[in-house]
Structure formats: C-alpha cells, structure tokens
TrEMBL record:
One of its GO terms (cellular component) is DNA polymerase III complex. Residues 232-314 form the DNA polymerase III delta subunit C-terminal domain. Its EC number is 2.7.7.7. This is DNA polymerase III subunit delta'.
Length: 320
C-alpha cells in the first residue's frame, strides 16, 4: 500500500478521492495526514515528508489553511458540515495549489450529508484531494465508494503486536490484554501506563465474581463501584470490552485453549470458574454483552443499560 502511494506521488498520479477502510487502530488517520504532508511538504525526501518545514508543522498542529478535517458533530456528520466544506473549497487555496479535506468516520454521515458529499465527488477539482476514513465500509453509499480509490488497512497480527509491546517494555503478562483492546501500538502503550485502565481491570474482574453471587449483589456493586469509575460513554465501552474478554477467556479454557487467555494474571482463578458454567451459558452471556455494546452506541441510558446487562447475565446462567 505504501509502495503504491509512493509510486503515485512519483508519477504525479494522486487520486482525487481515497477511501481508507479498516478496523479501529489500524492507522488510517495517521496515514491520511502522512499523505497530506507528503503532497504539501517543501522538502520531501523521496516523497516522504520532512516533518520540519512550515507546511509539515502546520499540518501536524492542525492549522494549515488548505487542510480541512471533518469529524462527527455528536453522533453524525451533518449536511451543514459538508455544505460549509463545499463553500470553503469553492475558494482558491490560501497557500498552496492543492486543498485537502479529510473525513473521519465517513460512515456516520447523515443521508443528506452523504448525498451532498457525493455531488462534491462527482465534480472533482484537479487540485482537490479527498480522504475518507471508515471502520464500516458497508455503511458507505456505493456511489461514493465507486468514486474513490479504496485502500484497506489491516491490523498487526497478534504475534507482531505482542512482540512490539514487549519491546516497548510492557510486561509479558499484560501484553495479551492490551493487544486485545486495540490494534494501535501507541494506544496500547498508553493504556499500559494508565491508572484508570489498571483500576478498570480490577473492577471488571470483581464484577464477574460478584455476578456469581447473585444479581442483587451485582446491582449493589454497580452503584458502589462501577458507576463511579465508568462515567463517560467511551469508558463504559472499555469496561464492556474487558468484561467480554473475561467471558472469552472462560470459553477458551473450556475448549482447551488456555494459551489464548488474555487475563493472564487471573488465569488460575478463571480456570476454576470455567468449569462451573456451561458452554451454552457462556455463549448467551457473550451475546448479552455484545448487545449491551450495541445499545450503548444507540445512546441507551448507561445506568439502565448496565442494570439490564447484569440481569441478563444472571438469567439462564449456570453459576454454581
């Protein structure tokens, strides 16, 4: 992929629109800015940005007048945002011949916004470069996809991710959990030193243990410990991811794949717990957590969501 873009730069055949698609943490946004800097850099070295000229620095600081970043306003990208972008691009470049617009989470455009962007893409200016980014390419209008050059971003393999984290100084027993939380090395390394995340792991493990004692005790635990720590939507989502990983670990142990357990420090206790619940029960509980994550994204009240999840995890479970 990098080689293909370098060839495009060398031959001056940069597309007017790109669609970067791939899972969260695969470097789409970083690469979008790298391409932008490569095209604006005053002293590129073999088409790689120098990172020291005024253009590279201004792109890095988000204040280059010819580079425009569009991100969701709340839950979506609205028509007004695309309209403002179109008005801005009707003007000539302030400092360079080219103008760039980068759209993150392009799948979150409203229908009107997507249609407005489509009109923009249908009448490309030779000096305009668009870079759309998405984790959900199936949510993008086919007509928009057809007008973009698609580049797919793949996450590092688990082995490579673990290897790089250990090279950075992450403890071997912590690396599998971090690698399961994100595909982004920098994000994983940041989580490793995050006191909030360290405490989050302890609370989630404790929630699982409390769940085994009954839904009433678990509901009390939510009030006393969970809600005080998991306050923001993103934090709750992290907590649900951690809870999901615990149940996955239990399933791995049951099917004889203990080497894939990511809560390494809890392996001994999890091995004891794993054989006190049925595979069918674990499957239902995993589904309940995934459904809770979906509801969280649709803006369900977080407190109600967690209380409902606790009850769902208890319903039909076979804790003994």
């Amino acid at each position: 992929m990098l080689k293909m873009l370098k060839n495009s730069l060398e031959k001056n055949r940069v597309a007017h629109a790109y669609l970067f698609e791939g899972a969260r943490g695969t470097g789409k946004k970083d690469f979008a800015f790298l391409l932008t800097k490569a095209l604006l850099c005053l002293a590129p070295i073999e088409n790689v940005p120098c990172e020291t000229c005024i253009n590279c620095k201004r792109v890095n600081h988000g204040n280059h007048p010819d580079v425009h970043l569009v991100e969701p306003d709340g839950l979506s990208i609205k028509k007004g945002q695309i309209k403002a972008l179109q008005e801005e691009f009707s003007k000539t470049g302030v400092e360079s011949k080219k103008k760039f617009y980068l759209v993150t989470h392009a799948d979150r455009m409203t229908t009107n916004a997507a249609n407005s962007l489509l009109k923009f893409l249908e009448e490309p200016n030779s000096q305009t470069v668009a870079i759309l980014m998405t984790e959900q390419i199936q949510q993008i209008l086919p007509t928009i996809i057809s007008r973009c050059q698609i580049l797919s971003f793949q996450p590092l393999s688990s082995e490579k991710m673990l290897e790089k984290l250990v090279e950075l100084g992450v403890k071997k027993e912590q690396a599998p959990l971090l690698a399961s939380m994100t595909n982004n090395i920098n994000e994983a390394f940041a989580l490793n030193g995050d006191d909030w995340f360290a405490q989050a792991q302890k609370i989630v493990v404790k929630l699982y243990e409390v769940l085994r004692r009954g839904s009433l005790e678990a509901l009390v635990f939510l009030q006393e410990e969970w809600f005080g720590h998991f306050k923001e939507k993103e934090q709750i989502d992290r907590g649900l991811d951690l809870l999901l990983l615990i149940f996955k670990d239990l399933l791995y142990i049951q099917v004889g794949k203990s080497d894939q357990v990511v809560f390494v420090n809890e392996r001994q206790r999890l091995e004891h717990f794993a054989f006190t619940c049925s595979p069918n029960s674990l499957s239902r509980q995993l589904s309940a957590i995934l459904e809770a994550k979906r509801k969280l994204q649709s803006n369900m009240n977080p407190q109600l969501l967690m209380e409902q999840l606790v009850l769902n995890l208890q319903e039909g479970s076979s804790f003994v």
